[in-house]
Amino acid sequence: MTGAAERPPGHHPGSVDVHGHAGAPDWGALPIFDPVQITSVYQPIVDLETREIVGAKALARWPQLTVTPDMAFEYARHAQRIEELDLLCQQAAVEGSLQVPLPEGFKVFVNVEPGSDVENLTRASNRIKTVAEITERALLHNPAELLSSIRTMRRRGCGIALSHVGSVPDTLAMLPFVAPDVIKLDISLVRGWPNRDQARILTAVAAYAERSGATILAEGIETHAHLEQAMALGATLGQGWYFSRPGPLREFPPITRSIGLVAPQSEFVDTPFSLLDHSKVRIASKGMLLAISRHIEDQGLGLETPPIVLAAFQDSSRFTPATARRYRALAARCPLVVALGAGIGPFDFPGIRGADLATADTLRGEWTVVVVGTHYAGALIARDLGDGGPDLERRFEFALTHDHESVLSAARSLLGRIKPIARYVHAL
């Protein structure tokens, strides 16, 4: 989060006591939401080849209070005021950046909560260039709100950085949904010799960066050994005490190579079928399409890195007991499994996100199965032709696609209809 602290090596704080137990501050007497009390320090981001300082990460501080950033944000979470504090920290980051003339191309990284108002980040876009830093785990909790925020920030010229990549290997399939300009490798990858799981993470990150043009940034660099490992992992940017401790923002010399922003992701489409090239649409019975849909679903059980699985079933009657068994097996392995349809609501078993469809939602007339992994993307997209008669003989217009951008657009359309399961707070 915006107030995340740069911690000494080896320091991993546990939960923060905010309920008045021994050692806890008197929260009622601490004005942590007072803008006057919040300031920003900045840690430089360095080009590992040229050693130029090309950006800085904003970090919130309360210098006049006996409170750490971890404690402040933990209290805000318990008080259900996390967005309020996040906005105040964004404001402090922007205002601090405006006090110093920064070189052209210099980027200021600021953490952003899903759903936060991003006006603070974009209102000074003619003077500073900001990069919103989010975590991929947020997509699991509130995908519709997060994707909407990302689209808004991109339209207003803000870059996107995805932080802590690799801390939770099963969330790697989220990378293409966020479509980050900068991928921030988790500190565990920089400081430890890669094991098999870490090798899987790095392979997925490298593949995404090669396909998209995204930049890899390694955080937590504190020694020369960390630097060498970061560069071996493909990082071209670095952040950590090896280069500089956090401090006030100062003037920097002109930079010769700025952090590039990749092309923005495609805009939201109403339904998956609406994005199809209709010259490639065919007609088949439901019985034929069932085999194709199950083959795509099976990728969720067979791919080495668990993918995201999303499906629209028209209505709850199509989500049969046999289908429920398949999706429970998928949910036991995949980080996100979604089933949408009229009358499909919360399930009485864990793992599957259900989403009811409004009466006027045109998705009710479509049947879609989408699987997105780190190295695989596939979708069956079909529209009901309204036939009567036996269920397996009903006809659908359909297309089967493995085009990466088409599959992602279909997936984003489905994700945009999911309601949050709980209020999500970035990891400290």
Q: How is this structure best described in words?
A:
The protein has helices at 69-78, 82-98, 119-122, 138-141, 143-155, 175-178, 187-191, 196-212, 224-232, 286-302, 321-331, 404-415; strands at residues 39-47, 53-61, 107-111, 129-135, 159-165, 182-185, 215-219, 237-239, 282-285, 308-315, 336-342, 352-355, 366-372, 377-384, 395-401. The chain has 428 residues and is an alpha/beta fold. The chain has twelve helices and 15 strands. It folds into two domains: 27-239, Alpha-Beta Barrel (TIM Barrel); 272-415, 2-Layer Sandwich (Endonuclease, Chain A). Strand 5, helix 6 (175-178) and strand 6 form a beta-alpha-beta unit. Residues 1-22 and 423-428 have low confidence and may be disordered. An eight-stranded mixed β-barrel has the order 1-2-3-4-5-6-7-8, surrounded by four helices. A seven-stranded mixed sheet has the order 9-15-14-13-10-11-12, sandwiched between helices. Helix content is 29%, strand content 22%.
Summarize the structure.
The chain has twelve helices and 15 strands.
Strand-helix topology:
Elements: E1 39-47, E2 53-61, H1 69-78, H2 82-98, E3 107-111, H3 119-122, E4 129-135, H4 138-141, H5 143-155, E5 159-165, H6 175-178, E6 182-185, H7 187-191, H8 196-212, E7 215-219, H9 224-232, E8 237-239, E9 282-285, H10 286-302, E10 308-315, H11 321-331, E11 336-342, E12 352-355, E13 366-372, E14 377-384, E15 395-401, H12 404-415
Parallel strand pairs: 2-3, 3-4, 4-5, 5-6, 6-7, 7-8, 10-11, 11-12
Antiparallel strand pairs: 1-2, 1-8, 9-15, 10-13, 13-14, 14-15
